[in-house]
Amino acid sequence: MLPKHLCRIAGASAISLAAVLAAAPAAAQIKIGISISTTGPAASIGASTKNAVLLWPKEIAGQKVEYILLDDASDVTNAVRNVRKLTTEQHVDVVVGPNTTPNALAMLDVIAEAQTPMVTLAASASIVEPVDAKRAWAFKMPQNDTHMSTILTQSMADSGIKTVGFIGFADAYGEGWWREFSKLAELRKLRIVASERYARNDTSVTGQILKIMSAKPDAVLIAASATPAVLPQKTLVERGYKGKIYQTHGIGTLDFLKVGGKDVEGTLFPTGPAVVARGLPDNNPVKKVALEFTRKYEAAYGAGTTTQFAGDAWGAYMLIANAVPQALKTAKPGTREFRAALRTAIENTTNLTVPQGVINMTPKDHVGLDQRSRVMGRITGNKFTYAFGG
């Protein structure tokens, strides 16, 4: 059931959420546009994102807020269409989303042209690096692949793994992971003996898996996200692979667990603290905030429902809410000056603890997360659990 201050969601490609008082039709003072994947291959990511958005407060710094939520159907063309609608027709003050890297990269030109800040929920560092004229307007909530690759390769090395097979998406997500993982694997003296790719909507990866297995790696890393990440792992299990299987933080959805079932039991993966908040050591600097979010989210959606993507979405709200008071000192919502001031305030975020880490942004770093943003998780009893780190 939706919070009273939000209207009912309807429609697949254009969903409007008016975060105003239930009986008040008047326009809000601050507009936040959201473009995410509630349908299509990335729908399991978008679903938990949407759930978190529905919990966003109806006011920020005493100003009423209108949330306008659009579905990009996991499609690049739709993502560009959505961001144009949000910036040129709805004149939003900030855009949140999308969930996938290809969609986020495609939206960069539009947000730069509209001079509207975007807080993306997609993973690849290429969305925000290097900070050029376009990327000056883009910020990112998920941890960079470098952060996740660091703890993942350390885990492999500490476990005595010497050889690794790699299979990832044939898009910017997979390539981003390949770039960072291969670089760090070399530093950890891990030898990559096979490297394969597949598309998010492929129904078979038998050929790729047979090639990987023929190289007899000690472990396999699957660089994919959401339910499409299950396919290579199921194929490995079906073909009798006995080595260790690692995934990335992109698997953090309940649908991944549901579809993967017993085939993903024991999987190790890097993750944000929010996903495994209850298992974190008491001295973890993020645990308090991560637990507060987990309790709020699970009170609404049930025990064990917190995901990487829900945590990222709540962090996006916290980042914006933290920046709005500063922007309000110089301009009014709905103006170009306010959008510029909001961008500057976000860029200067300091020591903001969100469910996934502690943010310290700079003009050259539009993520702002450090080693406090990741731990290693393990799938145990068909649940995401804390393994070590942090």
Describe the fold and architecture:
36% of the residues lie in helices and 19% in strands. It is α/β, with parallel strands linked by helices. The chain has 2 domains: 15-143 and 291-373, Rossmann fold (3-Layer(aba) Sandwich), CATH 3.40.50; 149-271, 3-Layer(aba) Sandwich (Rossmann fold), CATH 3.40.50. The strands form 4 sheets. Strands 1, 2, 3, 4, 5, 6 and 7 form a 7-stranded mixed beta sheet that branches. A 4-stranded parallel beta sheet has the order 9-8-10-11, with helices on both faces. Strand 8 (163-169), helix 5 (172-187) and strand 9 (191-198) form a beta-alpha-beta unit. The radius of gyration is 20 Å and the shape is globular. The model is unreliable at 1-28 (pLDDT under 50).
CATH topology of the largest domain: Rossmann fold
Summarize the biggest pleated sheet: 7 strands, mixed
Counting helices, strands and paired strands, the structural category is: alpha/beta
Which CATH class of the largest domain is shown? Alpha Beta
CATH architecture of the largest domain: 3-Layer(aba) Sandwich
Work out the radius of gyration.
20 Å
- The whole-number mean of residue pLDDT values reads 92
Strands, count: 16
Low-confidence spans: pLDDT under 50, at least 5 residues? 1-28
Share of helical residues: 25-40%
Please count the helical segments: 11
Summarize the model shown:
The chain has helices at 43-53, 76-89, 101-114, 145-158, 172-187, 206-214, 230-238, 254-260, 287-301, 308-328, 336-347, and strands at residues 15-17, 30-36, 59-60, 63-71, 94-96, 118-120, 138-140, 163-169, 191-198, 219-223, 244-247, 268-271, 352-354, 357-359, 375-380, 383-388.
